[in-house]
Records
---
Amino acid sequence: MAEIKELLEKLKHIADNPREQLDNYIAQGKKAVGVWPYYAPEEIIYAGGLVPMGVWGGIGPIDKAKEYFPTFYYSLALRCLEMGLDGTLDGLSACMLTTLDDTLRPLSQNYKVSVGRKIPMVFLNHAQHRKEEFGKIYNAKLFESARKRLEEICDVKITDENLKKAFEVYNENRRLKREFIKLVGSHSQTVKASDRCYVLKAAYFMLKDEYNTLLKELNEKLKALPEEENLGPRVVTSGIICDNQGLLEVLDDFNICVVADDVAHESRALKIDVDTSIEDPMYALADQFARMDEDPILYDPDIWKRPKYVVDLAIDNDADGCLLFMMNFNDTEEMEYPSLKQAFEKEAIPLIKMGYDQQMTDFGQVRTQLETFSEMVQLNNM
């Protein structure tokens, strides 16, 4: 148990100190590239001997970014740009940005004329018609352009051989994370909701081979423990990101066990591995993206496929309900809420919608909602 605690503390420290991680890698003579939301092909960065560093906003002021955005843009985008403007991201050799929702499109252009003057941008405009052959070909060419841009900016060579090695490392990373998430559901006293978040978050600030070593050790030690009784509600979480320390403390106070998640920052990108049998590495990445589904930012003509997926997550993992953290001003998530609500009501599974913002410090309303939810679960289980 002491070894598990030590591993959890080590990963939490990494999750809480990305600047320290970046400085350590730079001191080793490595170059780092910022990876912004969502679905940026990190494998290309890793294959160049570069360090991918996640850029997912965080708690902090939003001042300079307001010169480029109206106040009603969601805080994740504003805070990411602020980090570039205030020097938080200094030391990165480049940043990789995508345009998969209506906020990311102007964000990429605002980045180009501001932060991009000191930290070059690798721009990715994914084809949303990703499943058709023409979409795959387009995205493969897009990823090839990103490779060339990184080679130019960082003065590296990204070979097909190293890309295929990167696919193996990243496939293992996704597999280990999926295994960890399952283990948490049966070891919620040892791994609290906050621990779960920090373990997954740490991966954004580590080379994946280094992270895989730690996570593999943690998983093996958890598998050696007997299954534990859940002391609180079993839930599925949904939303963009829910790593706010104040929020995590509230979840721990109610002994919330997160048995699965539909969170962009956590599991949404973990479901699909790269098909290593495909010879062309860029086409392999395009094929992986083509097989990604059940995400509100990805085009899907079947509007009921996504709600069913989230409901099934709750059913398949024996969850007592779903906690939906709705980021303020995120139109994509807000527009799909009615269909989610209808799907959960049909199955008589509680769906608790909570407003969320990266700058939030008062979680009194969340605490009240969780108190009511916990009482409902206790009554249902009597």
---
Amino acid sequence: MVIRKTLFAMFFAAAAALAAVGCSGGAGGGSSAEGGELTLGTIGWTENVAVSNLTKVLLEEDLGYDRVELQTLDLGPLFQGVATGDLDAFQDVWLPNNRNYLDQVEDDVEVLDPWYKGETKYGIAALDYMNIDSLTELERAGTNEIVGIEPGASFHPRIRNVVFKEYNLDDFRLVESSTAAMLAAVEEAASNEEPILFLAWSPHWMNEVYDIVYLKDPKDAQGKFNDSSRITTVVNGELSEEDPVAYAFLKAVSLNEEQLNSLELEIKRAGEDEPVKGVRNWLEDNRDVVQPWIEAAREARQSSSS
């Protein structure tokens, strides 16, 4: 009797362990049942902070993921990380701007359709009180520095190697910093109506707060950066099979300019270190925006478990 009970207990424990293994997941492993983990790469740009934290909140709180980790890296390591599987996805790919990075890994990743549904702008900018509207007028801008963003930004080499040359800006220099440092410099300059040249783009809440002038480029020195870009997501080539739930969610994400700007502003109001709080505040009035994404993920979960 004791032996029989012991054997039954061992069998039950083994069956439970197998069931637990079958339902659990690692990175990119939230396929059929709730649970699992996902790792998203981020560059730290404002729209990336917004969409990646929105993804994190919805996957964890609505779709039952154990953890969605955000790893901040430079552009090169982000693309390489997605290709190797160290990262499951990166949601702030600007094309054609980032084409050089994508070309290096295209055999190991999948590029999803653009999630941003508006027109983008990108380029060297000034503030309207400076009374300049063209790169031909930089010599009278009142400053010879252009405040850039993170090292590795695709536009930086173009500024140094082409823009400066085409407009004879031998005494100008590009100052690499970070998005946060650039925005702080713009805020300080705007508050005192001091001259500043900086790298600006839309979508971004800065366009709602400051009177920004994107400087004309009659020589087309900024090249492809003068054109509207597509903002999309790149995922590891095996994500669709390893985690169809996350894959379906990422494919369904869709935001227009008003929605993205309002999300960014809520995160800004919540504080630099509280993006999740800002996301939750935004969701209070925007559940209808995200519900189709959640439903797409739930349908993928149901299909993969049947």
